[in-house]
Structure formats: C-alpha cells, structure tokens
Amino acid sequence: MSDRNNLLPTEADIAFFKQNGYWVAPQLLDEARLERLCEHMERVYAGQFETGRAPYNGYWTPEQGNGLRKTDNSHWADLELRALATDPVIGEIASLLMGADSIRLWHDQLLFKPGNPDRRSGGNVGWHQDYAYWQCAAEPTLVTAWVAFDDVNLDNGCMQVVPRSHQWGLLNVNDFFEQDMEKQRQGMDLPEDASFEPVPMVMKAGQVSFHHALAIHGSGPNTTSRPRRSLAVHLMTGDTRYKAGTRGDGHMNVGLLGGADGDLFAGEAFPELFRKN
C-alpha cells in the first residue's frame, strides 16, 4: 500500500460518508498485489486451498457453470486473500468512517462476475441492504469494503449505491439474487420524499469503496468480454453483539459465534483488523 496518511479519509470524507452512506477510497492496492490476488482467486476456484481448509459451505465450484460466483470466507482457504480481508489500513479507514475504536472482520465474499458481451445476462446483483441478511447483529454497526481487482464501470457491472438510503431503515427491497432490478425498483416502499438515484461506483483496480450496512446497493450485468473480480470485506465495529430470534439466526456467523443472546461477535472467527491505541 502507499503512504498510509495519504489513504485515510479526511474530516470532509467522513462527513460525506455519514451523510450519503458510502465513500470511495484512493487506490490502496498496487498492480503487483492485484496480480497475486487474482492468481490466488483462481487457486481457490480450482480447489487449491493452501491452508488445507475450504471456504464456507456452498462456495462456487466449476460444476455450477459460468454464472455469478460468490464464495464466503475465502480467507479461510488462502493466505493472500486473508491478508486482504484483515488488512489494517482497510480496518483503520472503516474505524474512521464508522466512528469506532475497533474493527473486526464479519466475513468476506470473493466475487466473480463473468463477462457476457451478448448482453443477455452477466450476473446482476439485485437491490439490497446488507443488514437485511445480518439482523443477528443487534445494531447495523457494519460496513463493507469492496475491493476492485479490475477497473469497474457500468459496462462491466460496477456496484451502484443509493445515496442517503442508509438513513431509511430496513426496506422491502432486499434480494441479492433478483435479476429484474427495475421490477424491484418499482415495488419499493420508500420513505416520503426519498430520492432513489443510484450512483455508479466507477473505480480503478486497487481502489476500495465503503458502504454502510443499510445502504441500498446492487449491480447490473457485465457486458464486456472480461470478468469483473473483487473481494467484499464485510466489517463490524468492535461492540457488535448477537441478537437472537431474528431472521439472521440462520447466518453462518451465529454458528461460528456459538454464543448466547447479547454476546460480542469476537474471538478467532472474527479477527480484529484495527484498534485505536
């Protein structure tokens, strides 16, 4: 990474995040590291797990075809991906944006959106709020760092975020796998005076976008001939606790915690990226 002080958000950047629910960092990863990450991504897809441990159950395998690939907790399987998922600079940025003293890993998702220049498909990600799936966390004290391995724009299905939507609470919009995004949009029950105007996260390879767990986001098809590759590093503040009895009780992190209502999500399964001195 470049000089740390040039990578951290300014007070104006933090204010922007608080108002809009997202922020795009400068380039954090250089070309050499990106090449290593893409190589290790392919190793995971080939079933070559250098740690001897597979990602979470349900990870992508070649038998599933050339659709959107989503692999949870790839950091279990690969040390290069683990170094990114637990990167202290990403953790420090998240702590500043969230106003938190410490940041832990919630989980990671290795994402591969294949190219499809005939435009018939390409793996949309439907409009959703991450917290809809994470209600096992008592409060929405979570943020995602989305790391681009390739240049991304609307042509190859970059992420799109709806500004200020993190202030609207949980909505009736949430379906990661929905392909008809316009139908979703028409059926949204938005707050009065809310403006649904998605902003495309156009980024260079090595840049990282951050979005709040309540921010509405999604992405369209990859209509190019090249894949769109990324790692979503889902993070939480150090005071995030388990809330039992929600739709999130089936989430893998509840099993990894193995605790009781009110327990901190902490320990080996949730490594700490950053803590203020």
From TrEMBL:
Transmembrane segments: none annotated. It comes from the Bacteria. One of its GO terms (molecular function) is iron ion binding. Pfam families: PhyH (PF05721). Keywords: Dioxygenase, Oxidoreductase. This is Phytanoyl-CoA dioxygenase PhyH.
